[in-house]
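Q: Sequence in, structure out?
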Amino acid sequence: MPGESEAELVFYESLTSLAVPAFCQAVRESLQAPPAHLWLNLEDVKVVDVAGPAALFQAVRRCQARGVRVSILPSPAIHRALLVAGILPELPLEGPGAGPPITAPGVPREDPAQPPRLLASTARLGLRPPTWDELEHFSTWAGDPLLDQMVGSQLLFLCRHLGPYHPDFVAHVLYDPSAITLVVRPLEPDAKPVGFVRLFNVNLVERFAFLETGIVNARSLRAGWGIEASRLALAWAMDVLEVRRVEAKVYAYNVLSINSLRRNGFQHEGVLRAAKMYGGQLWDILLFAILEDEMRTQRLQDGFPYMGFWEPDDRP
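A: Exactly. Output:
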């Protein structure tokens, strides 16, 4: 049983997919000898992506399962992220930051000495957030007519019209509280990203998300980078975001993507009739989805390890 003590954990600057492991580790350590009341001081956090709200949501549930009262002191960036992520009412916010005016966050330029670490990898490729310089790749991909016809990415549409370093686009790629964008990078010396995989409209309460994968040339498509990156992203999302359903939409004329979704265990669930004009005619948009047990079956075949931040006995 928790004691009568209080404990405070203070975090600075960021609560993103790269910073969340340290946050979860600190919470886990604090629960080894659980206090009566745990304060999560996030008043100095300036940037957040979807992994931040997910980790907070999970941490609060784990504290409550152990009878530990938990309070969050949010910064404006945290408050806005929880609002966008749809979990603001689910978390115990306190202090002056619990209800500030909601404003768009600033977007700092980051120039790390080394590229960020991989969030997940196979023997052939890795997934990680793009570096500042790699945002330029999105401009190239946004100008690829074949990629636009096959994927129809809203993210690339935004890049095409705003540019890769516009604050709105940067925020969508690097600091979106309801999405995460990861570049697909072959594990070869000096290899450049061959595309991206994006989980967006993530609902942390109902535990579902949408998947978008963009691979940039025919050679990369034939190499199967998109299929492998999508499978890896699903396994990461299961562990880190705790999603149990992922949806994907595909144009009916995009037979390659339809086959890729089926190979990754997605099931055809519905049709948006005559929803896309292409080649002078109207085409359907097909809705595919994969459920938690289907994702587990797929990842068992792939042999992916657990990629989350909690030990098995941490689960509430």
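The chain has a mean pLDDT of 90.
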